[in-house]
Amino acid sequence: MGFFTSLDARRRGARPRRVLLLSDSYRPTVNGVVTSIDELRRGLLEAGHDVRVLTVGPGRRTTFDGSVYRLPSLDASPIYPHARVGRLVDSATFADLVAWRPDVLHSHTEFSAFWWAWRLANRLDAPHVHTYHTLYADYTHYFFPHKGAGRALCAGFARQTLNRTTTVIAPTAKIEKLLLRYGVSVPIAVVPTGVDLTRFTPGAPSASLRESLGLTPGIPVILSLGRLAAEKSVTETIDLLARVRDTPWQLVLAGDGPQAGMLRERVEGHGMTDRVRFAGAVDPAQVPDYYRLADVFVSASRSETQGLTFLEALASGVPVLCRDDASLDGMVQGGDNGYRYREPEEFTQVMTRLLREPALRDRWADGALQTASGFGRAAFVDAVCATYDRARGSAGTARWAA
């Protein structure tokens, strides 16, 4: 049993291991990367480890609140909404981190934070673990007009960057295969991101939320939760629901993004304004309430790396109807907790059945809870800690003696 994978550090009397998590995106930003980092951080702290975060901040000076360092950064929203690029780590912060001597550097983005981790890992002779969260090839339309050239650029960038690490974590086997095709040669560990199973649970829908959204009692609610952007294929969801005409339904689009205006126009074009509610950006504290409103969770996205919203829906006991994608292998299982469609006709048939047959929804909801039970925070953190231990062996064992 390794240093990280052994039982709670405080119970076994060993010194807690020090983990530095590094990211160009962190709270108050809301996205899948931030959610994954927070789940990992909480789990490591619960296991008795010492955890700090190094990220960007909007200020002109570095701040540290005892657990999170925020470095000065530049606005990069023209490249990607809400993005920021951090500056170099100042000498005082670098010296403080070296004195703290983290046992592992775990980066979560491939830009400023990655190079902070790389520099510290080399200075401390510590393992550098990196989680590959984002399918950049699906986002090249934001900054690169030629699709083929953009994908080639992403492959080269990933290969040249990730091969500098000790170990890479891929949230799914789909990402592992992609990175191998890119030519990533360092060890890759497949570790699905977990969810907080105490937060995402079935429960009574919020009457006030239903009222604020103008939902009609007795009509099934379909939920789409995520960024309203091209890579999420929300247009496909709207177009497919337009085919489900003879059965009552109401759709909640929870999220905001660059396609919000266009999607409103598309809904109007289909004559569905009375069936679709645009909820806008959702306060993270309210996200579980949105799942509890839903009878079906729907998504047409093919840009997922970890499928967090799918897991949250399953943990909330909501059946999932989604576009078939390898990232969902082992998660969304047809006929058990949901269905992965390939053709429009499949979507129409399955959605119609779900809307008309409460017993089918209940059966798939039970399957959803069963599946989600294997994706809790504890299992996620255990797998990450096992990866840290393997990376420790690759990076050398001298520094890991208690």
UniProtKB/TrEMBL annotation:
Residues 210-368 form the Glycosyl transferase family domain. The keyword Transcription does not apply. Keywords: Glycosyltransferase, Transferase. Coiled coil: none annotated. InterPro entries: Glyco_trans_1, Glyco_trans_4-like_N, Glycosyltransferase_grp1. One of its GO terms (biological process) is carbohydrate derivative biosynthetic process. Residues 30-199 form the Glycosyltransferase subfamily 4-like N-terminal domain. SUPFAM superfamilies: UDP-Glycosyltransferase/glycogen phosphorylase. Gene3D superfamilies: Glycogen Phosphorylase B. Pfam families: Glyco_transf_4, Glycos_transf_1. One of its GO terms (molecular function) is hexosyltransferase activity. This is D-inositol 3-phosphate glycosyltransferase. It comes from Ornithinimicrobium pratense. The lineage of its organism: Bacteria, Bacillati, Actinomycetota, Actinomycetes, Micrococcales.
